[in-house]
Structures are given as C-alpha cells and as structure tokens.
Write a structure and sequence with these properties.
two-stranded antiparallel sheet, 5 helices, mainly beta, homodimer, about 280 residues, twelve-stranded antiparallel sheet
C-alpha cells in the first residue's frame, strides 16, 4: 500500500522516530481529524497509545489509558515521548507526553498520558453490563455529516439508536444517554488505537441533557480495554455499539461514562471522561 | 493538636518538603493503613493528591485524579514529587511520582499519578445518577473488622446495605454490586484526600461475582470530583453512600465503577478502576 492509499486514520497516528532515543517520535496534526478549534480528542488519545505500541521495549497490550488534554494543540508538527517508567514480569507502566514548540522554539507540553500494558492469561471471564437490545445497524439511518470544520465526523459512520444530537436548542433536555452504532467510515479494521479513538466519539452529554449548545471540551479521559489482539482481529471492520451517559454536572465540569460492545455483544472497552462546560 | 493526637489519616498522608525544590516531599508508610502485602491503595492515592494540594503553585481544587500502582510499596520511607506540567488561566495539569530506594540506594518509581486542578465557577448543575433508596446508616450493622493484617479496615466504619463480602467461598456469586454507608471511624471530616481514599474502599468485585477469594489488586484508579471546599465542609464527618459494580471481567483484569453520595443525596465523586485478578 502506498502512502497515498494509506487510510486517513493511519496517516493521522503515524509517528516517525526522531532517532535521538527510543520512544521519541515526530508526528503532525491532520485536517482529516480536525474538530472545530483543534484535533479531535480521540485521535490525540490514539496517538498517545500508538507511541507506546510502537515502542521497542513494550511488554504486552494496553489494559488502561488515561489522557489529559492540558492545552490546545495547534495545526502542525508535534513530538511525542513515551517512557516505560516501570517494567514488571507481566505488566508495564508508561508515561507519555506530547509537545509542540512555542513561538520562542521552546517545547511546551499540551497532552499527558499514562498507560498500563500487560500480558494477559486465559481466566474465568464474565460481563456484568449486557449489551442493550437495539435494532441492527443496517436498519438505522446514518447520521448526517456534521457542521463544516468538524472534519473528523466524516471519518466515522454513526447510526444513532437513541439520544440524537438535539435538532433544536430549546432547553428541553431530560436525560443524557445516547446509544449508537459506529465504525470507521472507510472500514479500517479495529485495533487498539482505533478503539481508543472510538471511546471518545460521543458528543458532550451536556448538549443532550440541556438541549443547549454550550462550549464543552474533554479535560481527561480514561479507557479500559477488555480485549486482546485476536478479539480485535475477529471484529475487523465491524460495527461497535456505543452507550454514553452523563453522571454528575457540577459548576463547570461533568463526567460521562461509556461502554463499547462488539456487534456480537462482547464488552470491548469501558471509558470515562471529565468534561469542561460553560454555563 | 500535638503529633500524638493527630488523626491516623493525617499522619498517613503527612508530607515534609525535602527543601530541594518545590513539590518534593518525604513521607513514610503507616501500619494504620496497611493492607495485607502493602499500603491500602486508597491511602497511596490520597498521598498523591496531598502532594498537589500542598504545592505552593497549586491553582484551584482537584477535578480528576488517576493513580497507577506500578510496583509494590515497601514498609518505610518514600519520596513524592509533584510537578505542574501545564498551568492555564483556570486549570492546571499535574504529574506526580512516588519513589522508594532499592537495595542499591537508587530511587525506583512505584506509583505514578496525573491530576487536574481547576477553579470552578457556579453553573447549571444536575445529577443523572440519583442516590439509590436505602435504609439510613443508623439502622444497619457495622461491618466486623476484617482479617488480621488488614489494618486499614479499622480506620473506616462501613455499614453494608447489600453486596456483603461472601461468608462462604463456594462459587455461588451471581452479581457484583455492593451498596454501603461509610465514614472515617474516628469521624475525621471529609476533604479531598479522604474522598480520594474512600473512592478505593470497595473490595474487589471479583470476590463477590464469583464468591471466590482469588488474589486481586488495583492497577489503575481514576476518580472525578463533583464538589468544592464548601460542599466538603458541609458534610464534615458525615456518612457517604458508596455503590460499586464490576463491568467486564476478562483474562486477568476487570474494571469496577463506583459512585459516592453524601447522606443528603449529592453525588460527590465518581470513580473507576482496573483490577488485576488471578484465575
């Protein structure tokens, strides 16, 4: 596959080693995943995961990731630095930072992350959050492409089941739950970076809860993975069912909780985020 | 108040500046909060929060904390280093590390954390997770003190409503939800470090789900705060209602989600953790 044929998602998370030391990479923001005033938060989270996945000293696969959006990311180049802070027999703890140079050429941190990777062993397994009974994706309409400037929405096929983005901002909201089918619009197969990005694909719950289009942005997201490489390979480009709901809205911040199931009903990832919002 | 009269919790989270640079502290583990093979994870999380709360450059109050348990903590002294990695107009992003010296005297990281602090503004507020209807704490029995060696359980008064620790490990578990009232056993008033510790006070969901006492330990916990200093002061030493439930158990790891309400029904904190377990 040539560079031109490479999928937009793979272009967006592409990292080139700087050659200085293991774990230091260069990348650049892509218009394809732009979200109003900066990159879509999910693609930034995917880049932080990718920095660990690329690392020559990595042990095992992602178990947990937390990404903190510390400052705005400008269009253009960035550096990512992934460090294995502790390596155990079957698990590893990572610290990741994204930087961009300011006007004076000084590297400024705009994003931080921690990851846990681990070798899994087969054990007793169970889910206590069954997939909601919903109509199959083929029976539902695809959500129309979002407003101009929100390019990343074109990269994702979404088929909402319930909890649509309000059509009228009239303050009539009564709940904060959305159910929707989603998959990559170009049918790119699922892997850890794409699953990381997908865990951030729910619009801010305050919009639904209030039916009011207030400014809002994620400050921190945590995603737990409940799948291994074989499980992801089985899903390929299949649909995921996503559920998101707000929990507490309080004085400028709220949290939203999310689950992502395979079409077969396996709970693949659980995710939570804290979101800034303006009154 | 003299050192001897100081509350066990305050002794356990006490940090003394090393004097080298802002944000570097010394502390020591306390038998009072011991949990079988190391300190109770909640007290370690509280220490990481305390390192930020003590910092002279801190802006605002905790919004989100993620603590990663990278390696075992030995009984004895430790160092904590809190760094403000990015300071914005009304929010601040922190990185925190706990280290202990190994046999060669080299500092080794055993715990990492990220925190977001922020100045809150009064806004529209709402909760979409109402407190479950449960009997008042005074009508319920206090949980008996746990097994020898688990000293931290003596520091916390727990009055379970449902989802007790199984009395018989016979594999008969059918669900993973616990509801319980809890407060500091010595009636220490609630603050951010204590609320951080309390968000980790639920025993591993796999014990309840399987009615099987398998080895288990938190690898990463994230807590979101939905309260400010005035709200905490109003609660004082009051009871909190805690709810915890497992979501997905898969090949050696599971996640559990938790909520903590004030007795008055305000959702104060939401928390999630990823836990290692042995088949």
């Amino acid at each position: 596959m040539t560079q031109q044929e490479q999928h937009a998602f793979d272009q967006a998370i592409a990292l080139i080693p700087t050659g200085q030391e293991a774990g230091r990479y260069r990348g650049a923001t892509r218009r394809d995943y732009w979200n109003m005033v900066g990159p879509f938060g999910g693609i930034t989270a995917a880049i932080m995961a990718q920095a660990v996945l690329c690392h020559p000293q990595r042990l095992g696969l992602p178990i947990a990731i937390t990404v903190n959006y510390a400052a705005a990311i400008s269009a253009g180049p960035f550096e990512v630095h992934a460090t294995p802070v502790r390596t155990n027999r079957s698990s590893q703890h990572w610290s990741v930072q994204m930087t961009q140079n300011d006007a004076q050429g000084t590297a400024q941190i705009n994003t931080t992350a921690t990851l846990v990777t681990a070798l899994r062993r087969p054990t007793w397994s169970e889910s206590d959050v069954p997939m909601p009974a919903v109509p199959r994706p083929e029976t539902l309409r695809t959500m129309p492409i979002g407003p101009a400037g929100v390019d990343w929405l074109q990269r994702c096929e979404m088929r909402p089941v319930s909890g649509f983005i309000p059509k009228v901002w009239d303050g009539s909201g009564t709940h904060s739950e959305t159910l929707l089918w989603l998959r990559d619009a170009m049918l790119r197969p699922l892997d850890f970076p794409l699953l990381t990005a997908m865990s951030d694909m729910f619009y801010p719950r305050v919009w639904l809860r209030r039916a009011k289009n207030v400014p809002a942005g994620t400050v921190s997201i945590t995603t737990y993975f409940h799948v291994d490489a074989e499980g992801l390979a089985q899903i390929g480009p299949g649909y995921l069912l996503g559920r998101a709901q707000g929990q507490r809205f309080y004085n400028g911040f709220f949290d939203q909780t999310a689950q992502l199931w395979s079409e077969g009903g396996q709970l693949l990832a659980t995710s939570n985020q804290m979101v800034y919002f303006k009154a």
